[in-house]
From TrEMBL:
Function as written in the Swiss-Prot or TrEMBL entry: Contributes to the regulation of the Wnt signaling pathway. Down-regulates CTNNB1-mediated transcriptional activation of target genes, such as CCND1, and may thereby act as tumor suppressor. May be involved in dendritic cell and neuron differentiation. Contributes to the regulation of the Wnt signaling pathway. Down-regulates CTNNB1-mediated transcriptional activation of target genes. May be involved in neuron differentiation.
Signal peptide: none
Subcellular localization, as worded in the UniProt entry: Cell projection, Growth cone; Cytoplasm, Perinuclear region
Protein name, UniProt field: Protein NDRG2
Family under the similarity heading: Belongs to the NDRG family.
Alphabetically ordered keywords of this record: Cytoplasm, Developmental protein, Differentiation, Neurogenesis, Wnt signaling pathway
Subunit details: Interacts with CTNNB1.
Length: 371
């Protein structure tokens, strides 16, 4: 009987000569990712057509994870490294995913005709209900980067009952002021559109270092066949309205929010300011060291850990094993509660490549965790 069982196992999951079970598992995971290409749909909205790709099947009583990318990217170039990361597979098995491409940003998109009026970011947010109605999805957990983070925030303000949580990476909730507008115009006189967008996506230190990642994304944006479309999306982002967040006021995000930014990233100050305007009992702030301007590309492992704990805090995946980041965070919050009593539970998770210790700041300051 034992021999029969061995034969069945060998036939069911054969190992290559010299291949370990761990390597076989990794190969199986890679093959499954390659086979799961998703289903792409397009739906007409009052502001034009929008394309999105759905992965997985809806789970009962669970929201969909809906992503929205930044300027210069599409859903694949913005989120693929994160969602193909090994530890992320435990998460995506439990949720259906909807990856939205801004109009004209999808692969193979035709260039819009001269004079085309591209939707504003507010109008892009107003397209999302059409997507959810088409799919018959009632609630979402949103993950947005840059312009995509703004769009999901605007949608959440307009439709709070349909948003269970938000992960906002590099969000700038403020409209451009006169000084910003003037600086943008001056930069446009000396820099190409692609260079301005790269400066939006990555820090100057990263651009100067010209790593393999920077070379890859510089090539993607500079040689994009839809660069004219990208410029339209870029213009809409620069003409965004102020979200007018106000802590304790009527205009705020009602759902749990995780704000994410890289240390010394181009939008670090904007995200810090956004954190100061949101409800501290609903908001987590994750500042990631050594991650540059695009944490989901450079640190998918750390971001996956944080996202898993964010979901657990919302009551999902309670049986999932806690990661090193979430264990550290739990310890820090417990320590903070014992020291500061009923103080506000606004949290900061500061990730470092160096090993650090837990420490509690003085009253009124957020907790920092190094891991």
């Amino acid at each position: 009987m034992a021999e029969l069982q061995e034969v069945q196992i060998t036939e069911e999951k054969p190992l290559l000569p010299g291949q370990t079970p761990e390597a076989a598992k990794e190969a199986e995971l890679a093959a499954r990712i390659l086979l799961d290409q998703g289903q792409t749909h397009s739906v007409e909205t009052p502001y034009g057509s929008v394309t999105f790709t759905v992965y997985g099947t809806p789970k009962p009583k669970r929201p969909a994870i809906l992503t929205y990318h930044d300027v210069g990217l599409n859903y694949k170039s913005c989120f693929q490294p994160l969602f193909q990361f090994g530890d992320m597979q435990e998460i995506i098995q439990n949720f259906v995913r909807v990856h939205v491409d801004a109009p004209g940003m999808e692969e193979g998109a035709a260039v819009f005709p001269l004079g085309y009026q591209y939707p504003s970011l507010d109008q892009l947010a107003d397209m999302i209900p059409c997507i959810l109605q088409y799919l018959n999805f009632s609630t979402i957990i949103g993950i947005g980067v840059g312009a995509g983070a703004y769009i999901l925030s605007r949608y959440a303000l307009n439709h709070p009952d349909t948003v269970e949580g938000l992960v906002l990476i590099n969000i700038d909730p403020n409209a451009k002021g006169w000084m910003d507008w003037a600086a943008h115009k001056l930069t446009g006189l000396t820099s190409s559109i692609s260079e301005m967008i790269l400066g939006h996506l990555f820090s100057q230190e990263e651009l100067s270092g010209n790593s393999e990642l920077i070379q890859k994304y510089r090539n993607i944006i500079t040689h994009a066949p839809n660069l004219d479309n990208i410029e339209l999306y870029w213009n809409s982002y620069n003409n965004r309205r102020d979200l007018n967040f106000e802590r304790g006021g009527d205009i705020t995000l009602k759902c749990p929010v995780m704000l994410v930014v890289g240390d010394q990233a181009p939008h670090e100050d904007a995200v810090v300011e956004c954190n100061s305007k949101l409800d501290p009992t609903q908001t987590s702030f994750l500042k990631m060291a050594d991650s540059g301007g695009q944490p989901q590309l450079t640190q998918p492992g750390k971001l996956t850990e944080a996202f898993k704990y964010f979901l657990q805090g919302m009551g999902y995946m309670a049986s999932s094993c806690m990661t090193r980041l979430s264990r550290s965070r739990t310890a820090s919050l417990t320590s903070a509660a014992s020291i500061d009593g009923n103080r506000s539970r606004s949290r900061t998770l500061s990730q470092s490549s160096e090993s650090g210790t837990l420490s509690s700041g003085p009253p009124g300051h957020t907790m920092e965790v190094s891991c």
